[in-house]
Amino acid sequence: MEKMINHWSEWTPSRERKTCLIYLLILMFSINLGAQTQNALDFSNDYVSIPGASQLDLTNAMTLEAWVYFDGSIGSSQIILLKSVGPNNYDLCYALRRSGNNVYCQIGNGTTHFNSGVVSAPLAKWFHLASTYDGVADELKIFLNGELMSTTVPSTVWTSTSLKVASAAAVVLGKFHSAGWSTPNQDLAGMIDEVRIWNVVRTPEEIAENYLHNVSPSSAGLVAYYKCDQTSGSLTDATSYANHGTNNGATWVASRAFNTWIGGTSSNASTGGNWSLGSLSSNDNIGVYSGAIYQPILQSNISLDNIYIGSGASLTSNSGTQLTVTDNLRLGADASGYAQLKLMGTLVNSGTISQSQYLEAGSHTISSPVSSGFTTTSGDNTQLYSYDANVGNWAAIGSNISTAGLGFAARVDATQIPFLTAAATVSVTGTPNTSMTHTLGYFGSNSLAGGSGTGWNLIGNPYTCSLDWSTVSLTNVTSAFYIWDEATSAYKYYSAGGISSPLIPPMQGFWVQATSSGASISTTMASNGKVTTPQTYVKTLPDPLVVKVTQVSDTTVQDRLRVSNILGAPDGFDGAFDAWKMTNGAS
């Protein structure tokens, strides 16, 4: 996996200077963030009216977002956000609405209207609501707290691919009201914060990655952005379009809709200055992202509603602490990296926990960090291959997917046994493993002295953080591990002789070799897991001799042999220092 082995590199003097520069930039970024005032608008028989503007006409691409808080259970319909030219359904352009304890998106094309799937919303707590309309793909989606809840097909009701255009119509928050008409019993009883209107279809990954922090007002496709952080006056549009809203009686109140990690003071999550709201409180919705000087460590018991950990970021719970997750905990990933979670204490979960990794096109070895394996995944688990080390051959396709700790061969290919059909972020959902004993198989009559064909096992990192191979307890297992790198069409390997990093990323599958029957590998997340950024390898042994072989007919095809001078190493194969040359494939 190219992006999961991005720390296979050797030290160069220039990298030290680059690290210093990056550190200074991060320091400046963190200081500029600081704890900020975060407010919301509280509605009760009042509303905000945003004058009509061409930027707010959304045709065949739309994303609506808002943080919402419902005061209590009210059975009538209520408006969160609405653009319409009149009180009839055919007057509608787009809306986010409440009906009882449910929320949904409604769109209109000037002739009729269409509703998204209905989603149950919580009462008396903040939640994030988003909806996207894609006229080209013919899809209306609705999201709750960053999770895709429903996809519906508007063409079942209409043939149009464009929403109604009404530049003169206002966008209204909190009331079914426009140009002098009003419908009783549709006034919102609750609060609204962080409203965003886009003229592009935001991807599920973009919605999940960004709902727990402020976004840049100049983000591509963002046509209106209401942070709701004023204390009086008009509702300010943070974009350059400046479509400010007139407040007709809504009250400015303090908001704890979301809380973003700043991490400019320390790694202590109990330190108030490390958070955008100035403190961390029970039932917060928190976002943890890369760019902070420090990454958070939970020092005491806490219950949190929603947690998102972005690519390159991490969250650790200290020994003796209990982290309770009531809604969702997501570990994100993108083409540049992945998130990590290290649990040294206990986890109590009544919601959904998922980890993601980004897979390029081609072949990969992958693993699951949850106890149910790949039972619940966004990929096609029927297309995964595991390796049966007891018989020395591949198991039936799609078998053993619920087994924790196994590695699997996976293809990202539109036609050939596709786990994914194209490069994308893939997720797996379940309860994170915190300890694992891999009981390895051993098949074959040849000993290590006679050949390298025996004892091979395809296993994986079983944790939501990196696995530090240098700390792992091995029984009848050589010290090397091997990972297929699709980018170079070759195996990368680590051995105790000092070649590359011992850190194995989450969701990474890898090969190991048992030396006899009874082989096993025992680890715990607390003792063997690591969330520090993989360090550039600094050579502590004498420089190895590197022999590079290049194919004459195609100079892009290359391979390397490294020979190190290690005092006391035996002449033959030694599993503590040596690694086998793995076959790179038919080419």
How are the SSEs ordered, and which strands pair?
Elements: H1 13-33, E1 39-43, E2 47-50, E3 61-70, E4 77-84, E5 92-99, E6 102-108, E7 113-115, E8 119-120, E9 126-134, E10 139-144, E11 147-152, E12 171-173, E13 177-178, E14 181-182, E15 190-198, H2 204-210, E16 222-226, E17 246-248, E18 251-254, E19 259-260, E20 285-288, E21 297-298, E22 302-309, E23 314-317, E24 322-331, E25 333-334, E26 337-338, E27 340-343, E28 346-349, E29 352-359, E30 362-367, E31 387-388, E32 393-394, E33 407-412, E34 418-420, E35 424-429, E36 435-439, E37 456-460, E38 466-468, E39 473-475, E40 481-485, E41 490-494, E42 503-504, E43 509-513, E44 520-524, H3 525-528, E45 529-530, E46 545-550, E47 558-563
Parallel strand pairs: 19-20, 20-22, 21-23, 22-24, 23-27, 24-28, 24-29, 33-34
Antiparallel strand pairs: 1-15, 1-18, 2-12, 2-17, 3-9, 3-15, 4-5, 4-12, 5-6, 6-7, 6-8, 9-10, 10-11, 13-14, 15-16, 25-26, 29-35, 30-33, 31-32, 36-44, 37-43, 38-42, 38-45, 39-44, 40-41, 46-47
Class from helix and strand fractions: mainly beta
Q: What Rg, in angstroms, do the CA atoms define?
A: 27 Å
Q: Using the alpha-carbon principal axes, give the shape.
A: elongated
Overall mean pLDDT: 85
